[in-house]
């Protein structure tokens, strides 16, 4: 049985709640109609921080980058938290991820093979597992993701037609820092434009609609919302700077 998670001290809990409230206000200021889903990225932060936002702010969507950290936190924290896996997806970790009952989405699917492994490991008794296809919109070799265009269409078609325990929720990009900075100076972010075009292409090719866009992080989530994001991933603006992984205290 997992050990109970200690509560944050009142000052820390208030700091986190105010930071989350500030982000939601900034989202509301730029969202024209329905505000996007806010994923609070809690990687390398203690479970007590997550519990503080769960209790004090009623927040439910949290994102993690490391599989074991997500597994451990999910075991300790309330079962109605909606977890998002946003880290690099390895084939040998797919079964572990899919075994988390309240995993809301895997946002980094970049190959049909990995989609198949998630599908095969997901219990038929649970709701379908939402997945985003990660698209390498910037073409950087350092970034994971499927190439925009035919490759993305092929992976999307495979998920829709051959993975009955998965639901294709949409597309995700990280994008380049340079393009993010350019957008901050008043230009449209090319990565966000490319992801929107990818969504439109897939919807046309597969005859579906309503697919989502997961784009925008702490430094550019407002620009992402202006360009159509339905899912933003915000970490340091809420939780503060992260410690080195080796010294992180997550319990």
Description:
The chain is an alpha/beta fold and 251 residues long. Helices cover 41% and strands 16% of the residues. The chain is built from ten helices and eight strands. It has helices at 10-30, 47-56, 67-76, 94-98, 112-121, 150-162, 177-184, 190-206, 221-226, 236-239, and strands at residues 37-41, 61-64, 82-85, 103-109, 129-134, 166-172, 212-214, 231-234. An eight-stranded parallel beta sheet has the order 7-6-5-4-3-2-1-8. Helix 1 crosses helix 2 (47-56) and helix 6 (150-162) crosses helix 8 (190-206). The radius of gyration is 18 Å and the shape is globular. The model has no long low-confidence stretch (mean pLDDT 94).
Q: What is the structure about, briefly put?
A:
The protein is an alpha/beta fold. It has 10 helices and 8 strands.
Q: SS-based structural class?
A: alpha/beta
Mean pLDDT: 94
Biggest sheet details: 8 strands, parallel
- Quick one: how many beta strands? 8
End-to-end Cα distance: 14 Å
Tell the overall outline: globular
* Total of DSSP H or I helical runs spanning 4+ residues: 10
- Integer-rounded radius of gyration: 18 Å
């Amino acid at each position: 049985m997992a050990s109970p998670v200690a509560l944050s001290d009142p000052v820390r809990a208030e700091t986190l709640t105010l930071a989350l409230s500030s982000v939601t206000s900034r989202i509301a200021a730029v969202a024209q109609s329905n505000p996007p889903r806010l994923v609070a990225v809690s990687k390398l932060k203690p479970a007590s921080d997550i519990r503080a936002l769960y209790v004090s702010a009623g927040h439910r969507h949290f994102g993690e980058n490391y599989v074991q950290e997500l597994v451990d936190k999910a075991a300790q924290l309330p079962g109605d938290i909606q977890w998002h896996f946003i880290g690099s997806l390895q084939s040998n970790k797919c079964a572990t991820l899919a075994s988390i009952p309240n995993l809301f989405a895997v946002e980094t699917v970049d190959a049909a093979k990995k989609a198949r492994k998630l599908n095969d490991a997901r219990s038929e008794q649970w709701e379908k597992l939402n997945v985003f296809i990660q698209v390498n919109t910037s073409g950087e070799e350092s970034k994971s993701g499927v190439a925009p265009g035919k490759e993305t269409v092929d992976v999307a078609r495979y998920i829709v037609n051959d993975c009955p325990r998965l639901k294709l929720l949409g597309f995700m990009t990280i994008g380049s820092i340079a393009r993010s900075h350019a957008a901050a100076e008043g230009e449209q972010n090319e990565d966000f434009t490319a992801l929107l075009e990818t969504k439109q292409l897939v919807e046309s090719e597969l005859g579906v609609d309503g697919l989502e866009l997961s784009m925008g992080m702490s430094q550019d989530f407002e620009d992402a919302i202006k360009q159509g994001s339905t899912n933003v991933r915000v970490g340091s603006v809420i939780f503060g700077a992260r410690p080195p992984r080796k010294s992180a205290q997550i319990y």
